[in-house]
UniProtKB/TrEMBL annotation:
Keywords assigned by UniProt, alphabetized: DNA-binding
DNA-binding region residue numbers: 66-165
Name of one Pfam family that matches: Trans_reg_C
Protein name per its UniProtKB record: Winged helix-turn-helix transcriptional regulator
Amino acid sequence: MKKNASFIMMDSALAKSLYDTLKTLEPKSRYSDELLQGLKDLMEGEVATLMLGMTGNGEPFINGADDGIYVGALEIHPKNHKVLCDGAEVSLTPKEFDILYFLAKNKGEIFTKEQIYQAVWAEDYLMADSNIMAFIRKLRKKIEPNPDVPEYILTIWGIGYKFTDRI
């Protein structure tokens, strides 16, 4: 049975160590600034207690590792095929997810349509440029703030596509 809450005491040495570690590591989480401010407030005596909570349903980390990819407002979690954009879950088909994950885990690398097809489709499938283009177009509509001016999945004219390495 899951506990509702757990109260853990922390001294100033631990608070300072956590604060310094977060400042140094700069974790890829939109909540790290809030945690840093909370630890700072705790150390400065502004607050006496700091409460932490998990977003979503608080799924436990397997082996303590999060294999998610975080780029800007986009989060890609391959273990449970979940994509979040600005914290909201984005509904993708399995192939859309596979294409997005393939490009994101190889960010900055340019792939031809054929290379994307070969990486994502294990079984025989009608390979046509328009198939990959249609999937990319659908993906952009779902994850891009402005699909006509994409920030995540970029077209490299005459070659193919790449996932941005600039955000």
